[in-house]
Amino acid sequence: MINLENITNIEEISLEEYNKSVINSIKDKYPNLRQISKGITFGLQYGAVPMTIVNNAGFPLNTATAIYDSYHKLYVTSTQYKADRIKEATHTGYVTLAFGLRLRTPILKQSILGTKVTPFESEAEARTAGNALFQSWGLLNTRASIEFMNKVRSTSFATKIKPVMHIHDAQYYLIDDDIDVLHFLNKHLVIAVNWNSDPLIYHPGVPLGGSVSVFYPSWKDEITISNGSSKEEILNQIYKETHD
Predict the structure, then answer these.
(1) Helix residue spans in the chain (DSSP H)
(2) CB-based contacts of 45: which residues, under 8 Å, 6+ apart?
(3) Taking residues 87-108, what's their average pLDDT?
(4) Is the pLDDT of residue 1 over 70?
(5) Whole-angstrom Cα distance, residue 190 to residue 241?
(6) CB 124: neighbour CB atoms within 10 A?
(7) pTM (two decimals)
(8) 44, exposed or middle or buried, with CB in 10 Å at 0-12, 13-18, 19+?
(9) Would 97 disulfide with which of 92, 101, 113, 233, CB 3.0-4.6 Å?
């Protein structure tokens, strides 16, 4: 159960001010609150109702309802998009995910949604399909890595930058201890993750992006490199953060 008693001094963020810079500031201002909210957010994206929040997080019903309403007010476009795609699936028998991937929905194709006799299996398939509509865009991370590694392999850094693993929206590389290598990675990987040319996700006010972090001398020590940094700026930043 989530305990919010010790969380104070939270600056209210209005929906009108909720933009990319505000979203990014939450990570720094309220890291603990952001972390504990993830389970609720993922649940709502999957189709949770207020009672789900009550049962999973321990909030009273009025608080859970307020969270539910605020989420769907904030993400009204996404909510409507998902509802429209699920409705289409009752006719086509599939939903189209990232980069044209199709997820079959045979039960939905045989169902009428929103009635007292709509089978549980149909509702469950709708939740799975709806979740896949958004989660499938984790493939953007794969697309960016392919673009970046194709570029790496055409340079002298081909054996100096090795992909290690992907975790949803993060990529991990093992690189040589060489400022030229790090500078190249910081420039070209950021370019790759900024790709936003698919019309299904493109929005002029919601760009994609990312940043490079160096973990040194251990995994618990993260140094985030500013986008567009010169070699000298990268060296100065790493020196400062490892010698303070």
Answers:
(1) 20-29, 31-46, 50-57, 61-74, 76-92, 106-109, 120-135, 139-152, 179-193, 231-243
(2) 131, 134
(3) 96
(4) no
(5) 22
(6) 12
(7) 0.79
(8) buried
(9) 101
- The backbone torsions φ and ψ at residue 203, rounded to the nearest 5 degrees and listed phi first, read -150, 125
Q: Would you place residue 11 in the very low, low, confident or very high pLDDT band (cuts 50, 70, 90)?
A: low
CB 144 within 8 A of CB 209: no
Structure tokens at 153: 């392999």
Question: What 3-state DSSP class applies to 45?
Answer: helix
Cα 106 off chain centre by: 28
* The residue type at 7: I
Q: Which of 83, 87, 54 is nearest to 68 (CA)?
A: 54
Could you identify the residue written with the tokens 């070699």? 231
d(CA 80, CA 86): 10
How crowded is residue 87: how many other Cβ atoms within 10 Å of its Cβ? 13
CB half-sphere exposure, 177, CA atoms < 13 A = 4
The C-alpha atoms of residue 9 and residue 3 are separated, in whole angstroms, by: 15
